[in-house]
Design brief:
281 residues, alpha/beta, Rossmann fold, 7 strands, binds NADP nicotinamide-adenine-dinucleotide phosphate
C-alpha cells in the first residue's frame, strides 16, 4: 500500500450501510482518494441516489463506485455477494461494516422482535460479512473496520439491545484481530459518539432519558468520524474513537467507571424528575 493521499488508490473497498450517514461519507472519502468502492444496503433507490450524489461531488475523473442490494442479516445473500464480488473485482482490500440499526426503548417495553432485529443487523450482519469475505482476503491481506459505538463502551439508558450488539462487536473484533494477524489482515473497531446522521431520527421516539444522554455531548459530523477512521486504518490502530470528548469519556470510564455512572445517572435522574414535574407527580 502506498502512503499519503494515494494510499488507497486503486484499492477495492466494500462498505455496508454505504447509502447513508457514516458509510456514505466514508465512500465519498475513499472515492476521492482513487479507490474502487462498492456500497451495500437494502434499499436500491437510496443506493442509486448515493452513487449519483458521490459521483457529482467528487472531482476525480471517472469515479469507481458501484452498489449491491444486500441485507447483511441474511447470511446466504452475504455469501452470494462475496462470490459475485470475487468474480467481478477479486478480493477487497478493506471492508467497512457500517450497516446498522438503532432502537431506543425501555427494555421492559421492547418487543422480542425489535430486540432480535437489532442483534441480527448489527451483530450477525457484521459477522456474516466477515465470515464470507475473509476467505477472499486471506491471500492478499487487508483491513476490516467494524463499527461499534461509544454505546459499546458504556451501556446507555434505553439501548439494551443496541449496547448489547455494540459491546459484542468489540469482543468479536478483539478475537478477530488476534486471529487475522497471520493473514496480514488488520482489524479495527470504530466507536463514534453521537453523529449527525439519519440514524439519529430514532431519538424522537426514544425515552427522554436516552434523548438527554445522547444530546449531552453534542453531535459530531460524519466527516470527522471518517477522518478518524482513515487515520486509524493508516496507523493500523485497533480501537478508533473519533472526537476529543468521546476520548475523554472513554478514559474516564476505563479508569474511574463510577464517575461515568454518576454522570449518566445524574442526567437520567434530572430528566425523570422533570418528567414527574410535568405530570404533576
Ligand atoms: N449516528 C450515530 O450517532 C452513531 C454513533 C455510533 C455508532 N454508529 C454506528 O455507525 C453505523 C452507521 O450508522 P449511521 O449513523 O451512518 O446510520 P444511518 O445513516 O441510519 O445508515 C445506516 C445504513 O445501514 C443500512 N442498513 C440498515 N440495515 C441494514 C441491513 N439489514 N442490511 C444492509 N444494510 C443495512 C442502511 O440502508 P438500508 O436501510 O437501505 O438498508 C443505511 O445505509 C451503524 O453501525 C451505527 O450503529 C452511529
Amino acid at each position: 500500500m502506498m502512503t499519503g493521499e494515494n494510499a488507497f488508490k486503486g484499492e477495492n473497498i466494500i462498505i455496508t450501510g454505504g447509502s447513508s450517514g457514516i458509510g456514505k461519507a466514508a465512500a465519498q472519502a475513499f472515492i476521492m482518494m482513487g479507490a474502487h468502492v462498492t456500497i451495500a444496503a437494502r434499499h436500491e433507490y437510496a443506493l442509486q441516489q448515493s452513487v449519483e450524489e458521490i459521483q457529482s461531488n467528487v472531482v476525480t475523473q471517472n469515479p469507481q463506485i458501484d452498489y449491491a442490494v444486500l441485507d447483511v442479516g441474511n447470511d446466504e445473500k452475504v455469501s452470494e455477494l462475496a462470490d459475485k464480488y470475487n468474480a467481478n473485482h477479486g478480493s477487497p482490500y478493506i471492508i467497512i461494516n457500517s450497516a446498522g440499526t438503532a432502537d431506543a426503548e425501555y427494555f421492559e417495553e421492547m418487543s422480542k422482535e425489535v430486540f432480535d432485529k437489532v442483534i441480527t443487523v448489527n451483530l450477525h450482519g457484521t459477522i456474516n460479512m466477515c465470515r464470507s469475505f475473509i476467505p477472499l482476503m486471506k491471500h492478499s491481506g487487508g483491513h476490516i473496520v467494524n463499527i461499534s459505538s461509544m454505546a459499546g463502551l458504556i451501556g446507555i439508558f434505553g439501548y439494551s439491545a443496541y449496547s448489547t450488539t455494540k459491546f459484542a462487536l468489540i469482543g468479536f473484533s478483539q478475537s478477530l484481530r488476534c486471529e487475522m494477524k497471520r493473514y496480514n489482515i488488520n482489524v479495527s473497531v470504530l466507536c463514534p459518539p453521537s453523529v449527525d446522521t439519519p440514524m439519529m431520527a430514532m431519538l424522537e421516539k426514544a425515552p427522554k432519558e436516552t434523548q438527554a444522554i445522547e444530546t449531552s455531548g453534542g453531535l459530531i459530523l460524519p466527516a470527522e468520524v471518517v477522518k478518524a477512521m482513515i487515520n486509524g486504518i493508516r496507523k493500523k490502530r485497533f480501537l478508533i474513537i473519533p472526537g476529543t470528548t468521546a476520548k475523554f469519556l472513554y478514559m474516564l470510564t476505563r479508569f474511574t467507571p463510577w464517575l461515568t455512572e454518576w454522570y449518566i445517572d445524574g442526567i437520567v435522574k434530572k430528566n425523570q424528575w422533570n418528567e414527574r414535574r410535568v405530570v404533576g407527580g
